[in-house]
Design a protein that fits this description.
This protein has about 220 residues and is mainly beta. About 15% of the residues lie in helices and about 40% in strands. The protein has three helices and 16 strands. It has a five-stranded antiparallel beta sheet with strand order 3-4-7-5-6, with no helix packed on it. A hairpin with a 2-residue loop joins strand 12 and strand 13. The termini are far apart.
Length: about 220
């Protein structure tokens, strides 16, 4: 298996350990993966190996490789942030994120200005100020929501969800809605936050397609 992997990386079987590959490095740990997984100190073994590799990269011509330890996991992909506060980790204060976020695990899609990644926290955040979504009207929904028509003063969305569960659609809105119709019926359960420019439309989901029409 090692030879096969090295061939895929363009290395020979005589390659040093660790070996440089492009801008990175491969460090071979001579242990059975199942043995590492079943060992009480398996995590420490892997951490030490990565720390060793990072230290060698940091002292080489690629100083942007730097080993650091945190008590949370944080990954940004476009406007989305996947984050978790680790239950068993190093000490120190929990990391706090500041901005305008909507946690997609929150069934009410509430706006959060600060998110603290304390131990046990799990969230997938939408950064509503990210450049990828600044031109979007439909930001998030607690149902299937597909825009059908959109203009400067109106948007039509096709919605569908698990029957008899709470549904909500979060829209970016420059002003309060003049009318909100769901399947042709006036909908009153609408909340508008003028300072934030956000509109929440709430309803009970049905397992059939319905048109949600909002006019501003």
């Amino acid at each position: 298996p090692r030879l096969h992997l090295f061939e895929q990386l363009g290395l020979s079987k005589e390659a040093p350990n660790p070996a440089r590959v492009g801008d990175g490095q491969v460090l071979w740990v001579h242990r059975d993966p199942s043995e590492i997984a079943g060992s009480p100190d398996g995590d420490a073994l892997l951490a030490d190996a990565v720390r060793q590799a990072a230290g060698q990269m940091e002292s080489s011509s690629t100083p942007h490789f730097r080993w650091s330890e945190t008590n949370c996991l944080f990954l940004r992909r476009g406007p989305y942030i996947i984050a978790a506060g680790l239950d068993e980790s190093i000490g120190g204060a929990a990391r706090a994120l500041h901005g305008r976020f909507v946690n997609l695990f929150d069934s009410e899609l509430r706006l959060q200005r600060e998110v603290t990644l304390s131990p046990g926290t799990r969230c997938v955040l939408l950064d509503i100020d990210a450049s990828e979504v600044t031109g979007r009207t439909l930001l998030a929904a607690a149902c299937r929501a597909v825009p059908q028509k959109q203009g400067a003063d109106a948007i039509s969305i096709e919605v569908e969800g698990v029957a008899n569960t709470p549904g909500v659609v979060l829209l970016r809105a420059p002003r309060a809605a003049r009318s909100v119709l769901l399947a042709g019926q006036v909908l009153e359960t609408v909340d508008y936050d003028a300072p934030q420019g956000l509109l929440w439309v709430r309803f009970t989901n049905q397992a059939s397609l319905r048109e949600l029409s909002v006019q501003f």
